[in-house]
Amino acid sequence: MLEELFSPQKTFKVAIGSYEMKMSHWVDQPYLIRVSDDVELFNLNGDPWSASDVTWLDDSTVKMHLRRYPGHIFCTIQLNALTDQGSAISPSGTYAGSLSQVQNWVMNL
Is 103 helix (H, G, I), strand (E, B) or coil? Predict the structure, then answer.
């Protein structure tokens, strides 16, 4: 199943790829994509991170709440696709950097 959540001017989108981990346990994996050339700017492939409360703050900035399956590890991220900058907040700390740096920080929680 794929859901697409577009930024206000449809410049970027968050695609949510949902898959079942086990019976009735779903992961909604987020991918931040530039629409013009379909380039993936941020993803959490290889780790079962699930997004909820995906909110576009403006045409290039998105905020998401993430949980790593089964849900004991979580964080909130804010990503600006235009400036290639983002931040993350979790109980273990905060981080800011490029989208790829934020992606690596989240993957290592």
Answer: helix
